[in-house]
Design brief:
This protein is an alpha+beta fold. Helix content is 20%, strand content 46%. The protein is built from 5 helices and 13 strands. The longest helix has 27 residues. The termini are far apart. 22% of the residues are buried.
Length: 276
């Protein structure tokens, strides 16, 4: 009896050792068919980013630094087709280009000044925009209510806006080292800031914001070398056109004309940073 029990205990011990050896091998030897999971989220690659200088210049109407003399010192944007140029002018919008060494009239306007006198001031901003990512640049806050003549199928249609903000939607893409493609599109946001339905390809979403008027037929593209500028302004009085709402105002009874200059300052590579 004792011999039988001893034999059974030895047999059980051998079986346990064999099982432990097999399981141990399974833990120590990696299984090539087993799916491997990285516990950390992947890091995206570095992205190109464009550094843009924004000059918002205000001068009293009739100031010798603005007007035809200013626009005659600038160059036409060759990438703007005659049809697009006509559409821009119909809406009171004017676009021109300056080399990296701008004429003296532009240099005088870009010289920084204080914001105490709205009849002669220059407001400066510097923004860094990731490539292929649109950004909005606020230009003018409109009085409420105000009428604006918007392009329609036949001519224009006057619309009354409240809490309006005129903005430029910009998007930059790297062409080659030192060169970038700049897309500019006028945008007007208006109305109360509230949850609004937005349709996607799959469902309806609700987003907080104002109503948006996207002037798709008035966007344009231009290639800029480092240091070159794009100038935007209005044509003549322009009445209640889009150009007048973007670039014309009044301060204490003095009519003010606004100009916007966008200059490509440089290019950068943005390295990703893992969020904790």
């Amino acid at each position: 009896m004792f011999v039988k029990l001893l034999f059974n205990s030895r047999l059980l011990s051998l079986l346990l050792l064999a099982f432990a050896g097999v399981s141990g091998c399974a833990l120590l030897i990696p299984d090539s068919n087993r799916e491997k999971h990285n516990p950390l989220p992947p890091i995206v690659g570095p992205r190109d980013a464009m550094e843009l200088e924004v000059f918002i210049v205000d001068r009293a109407v009739g100031d010798p630094l603005i007007g035809d003399g200013l626009w005659d010192s600038l160059h036409e944007v060759t990438s703007i087709t005659p049809d697009l140029k006509e559409r821009l002018e119909e809406q009171g919008l004017r676009v021109a280009m300056s080399p990296s060494r701008p004429p003296r009239s532009v240099q005088a306007l870009l010289a920084l000044s204080g914001g105490d006198d709205p009849t002669r001031r220059t407001i400066y901003h510097r923004v860094v925009v990731p490539a292929s990512q649109p950004a909005l640049i606020p230009i003018t806050t409109l009085a409420s209510p105000i009428e604006v003549a918007l392009p329609a199928e036949h001519g224009t249609k006057v619309k009354e806006l409240t809490q309006g903000v005129c903005q430029l939607r910009i998007q930059l893409d790297k062409v080659t080292e030192g060169w970038a493609s700049l897309e500019v599109q006028p945008v007007i946001q208006h109305g109360a800031d509230m949850l609004r339905p937005k349709a996607t390809a799959e469902e309806w979403l609700f987003e907080q914001g104002q109503q948006t008027i996207m002037l798709y037929d008035h966007r344009f593209n231009v290639e800029l070398n480092r240091g070159e500028l794009i100038a935007l302004g209005m044509t003549g009085e322009s009445g209640n056109s889009v150009g007048a709402r973007f670039f014309h105002g009044e301060w204490n009874g003095v009519p003010i004309e606004r100009h916007v200059f966008l200059r490509l300052r440089g290019m950068h590579r943005i390295a990703p940073v893992r969020a904790q």
